[in-house]
Amino acid sequence: MGKRLRKARPMCYCVSPRSSSLHAIFSWYEEDMWIEIAKFLDGRSLVILAMTCKWFNRIMMEDSVWKYACLRDLQVPDPGKVAFKWIKLYAAAFDWMRIGAFLFDSTAALLSESLIAPLRIPDEETTDRTLQLQGCCLLKNIKAGIWIADLQLVRCPVCDLDSCDGTMQTLDARHIELFLNEGYNNGSWDYDVLGSHNISKHADGASGGIFDIKHLKDQTTSDIFDLKSWVGKKNDWQPKAVVTLHAVAVNTNLQNNEGIQIKYQAMKAGKEGEVVAIRISQQLL
Question: What InterPro entries does the database record attribute to this sequence (predicted)?
Answer without folding.
Answer: F-box-like_dom_sf
